Amino acid sequence: MAALRRKFGEDYHVVNTNRGASFPSAPVKKKRQRFVDKNGRCNVQHGNLGGETSRYLSDLFTTLVDLKWRWNLLIFILTYTIAWLVMASMWWIIAYIRGDLNHGHDASYTPCVANVYNFPSAFLFFIETEATIGYGYRYITEKCPEGIILFLFQSLLGSIVDAFLIGCMFIKMSQPKKRAETLMFSQDAVISQRDGKLCLMFRVGNLRNSHMVSAQIRCKLIKSRQTPEGEFLPLDQCELDVGFGTGADQLFLVSPLTICHEINPKSPFFELSQRSLMNEQFEIVVILEGIVETTGMTCQARTSYTEDEVLWGHRFLPVMSLEEGFFRVDYSQFHSTFEVPTPPYSVKEYEEKSSLLSPLDTPNRERVFSMDCLEAGEDGAHPGSASCKLPSKLQKMSSSGREDLQRKVLRLSSQPPEKASSTGDLPLKLQRLGSSPGQADGEARFHLKALKVGFQPMAMSTGDLHQRSLPPTPAAIPTHPHGPPHTPGGRPEDNLPPKLRKMNADR
Fold it and tell me: pLDDT value at position 98?
C-alpha cells in the first residue's frame, strides 16, 4: 500500500472492486435482469415457435452441434446402439428364414453366414464387419445373394452414420468457444479523464501466449427508450465508438489493454453525470472477436456492464512491470481500481459552462471605443494601459480638437462585409493637414486618407463629424464677388494634397 501511494500520490486510494466483498455502508440494490451475463451467455429464450421446429430439423447438423454436450453424447450412443441392433436383427432374420439356425453345427450344410446360429452370433458378425475387425470365424458364403446385398447396404449406411456423428463430435470439440474462457474482461468499467477528456474505460486481457489474430472489439449500449412517435423500444441497441475512425478498435492483444470510449456530443453518455448515473438503467455489451492462431477459427468473447458496475472517478491500476529481459503482467491487480479527481458533472454541463465567456471574448460583437481615451492620455494615464490603446498620432488630436469632438464615439460594426476592428487596430495614416489660426473657435480639421474596409471605400474627415454634430452657425464668411475668399495668410485649401483638393472641389 505504501508503494502504491508513493507511486500515485497520497490522495489516491486503492478500491477493491471484488463483488464478493461486502460493503455495509453501500445501499443494497435489487439485482436487475441482464441481457448478457458476465460470462457472455445471452439470456434470451425463444418460445411459441409453432411450425418453425421443422426449420431446426432441416439443418440437423448445425442443430446437433449447437446442442449441449450431454445431449450430443446421448444421441451419439443411441444412434450407434440402435443401428447395431437393427442390422444384427436383419442378419438373424436372414438366417432364420433360410433355416441356418437349425443346421448351425452341421458340417455338410452351407449356410448364408458361417457359424451364425443365434442372435448373439449374428450381432457379433455385424460388429466384426462394421468395425472391420475380421476375426475370420464368421463370414458370408457365395450361396447367399440376399446376404451380399445386405452387406453392401450395411457398409454404405455405416459410412454415412460414422461421417455424420464423428464429424459432429469433431466440430463440437474444435469449436473456439472455450478459447473465450482465456480472454478476460475487467469486472467493472470506470469513468475518468484521459488527455483532458471524460472517457468510459474497461480492461481486456489474454491469458494465453497464443495471439488472437485480427482482434477487434465492439461495444453496444442496451437501453430502453421511447421514440417521438410514442413507440417504446424495450432493448434498443446503440453503438459506442471505441476508435472506429482511428483504428483503436483493432487490438494487438499481447498484454492487457484499456479500451476507451470518449464521451463527446455524439456519445449517448453526453448528458451523463455522477448524480444521474445513480438513476440510469442501461447495459453495455462488449464483444471481442478474433481468429485463433492455432486453429484459424473465429472466436468471440462477450461480457456486459450494468449501471451499478460503472465506477465514476476511478482508474485501473497498472499491471505491467519490467523485469530482467521481459515484461511481467500481474493479473492479481487486473480488476483493481483507484480513485482520481474527476468532475462530477456531465460533458454537456461542462461545455455549457465553457460557452459562457466574458464580453471581451464574445465573438461577433461590436467594439466601441470612446475618444475619452484621449483625455486619459493627457491626464497622465499610462499609454500602455488596457483602457486606452490608441496610436500616438490619434492621441495628438485631443490637443487641438474641441471637447465635444473628443467625446465623439467611433463605432465600427463587425457585421459582414465590414471587418471588425478597433480604432487602434485600423491601418489608418493620420496626417495633420492644416489649421486656420485666424478663426475664433479654433477649429482644426483632420482629414483621413481614403481606405477600404470590407471591400467598400471609406473617406471621411473628423471635421465632417464635427459639422454633423453642431448646429449651423449664422456667422458670415467673407466672400469676394468675383472669386474665392482671400485671407492675408493664404487659404487653408492651398496646403492640402492634390487628391484632397480635387475631392473638395468635386464635393
Answer: 86
- The per-type count for the chain, helices as H runs and strands as E runs, is 14, 21
- The overall longest dimension of the chain from CA atoms, in Å, is 170
Which of 122, 132, 138, 130 has the alpha carbon at shortest distance from 89?
122
Lowest mean per-residue pLDDT among 1-15, 92-106, 330-344: 1-15
Query: Residues 298, 242: contact at Cβ < 8 Å?
Result: no
Residue 134 φ/ψ region, left for φ over 0, alpha for ψ in the -120 to 50 degree band, beta for the rest: left
What sign results for the dihedral spanned by CA atoms 189, 192, 194, 197?
A: positive
- Cell numbers representing residue 491 in the block: 487659404
More confident residue, 372 or 223: 223
In sequence order, what E strands does 317-465 have?
Answer: 320-322, 327-329, 337-339, 367-369, 410-412, 430-435, 444-448, 451-453, 456-458
Joined together, the cell numbers standing for residue 423 give 480604432
* Residue 396 confidence class, pLDDT cut points 50, 70, 90: low
Cell numbers of 143, please?
450361396
Q: By the 8 A CB rule, do 259 and 204 touch?
A: yes
Cβ(448)–Cβ(464) below 8 Å? no
3-state secondary structure of 343: coil
Task: Locate 306 and state its grid cell.
Answer: 450494468
Q: What is the mean pLDDT of residues 257-280?
A: 93
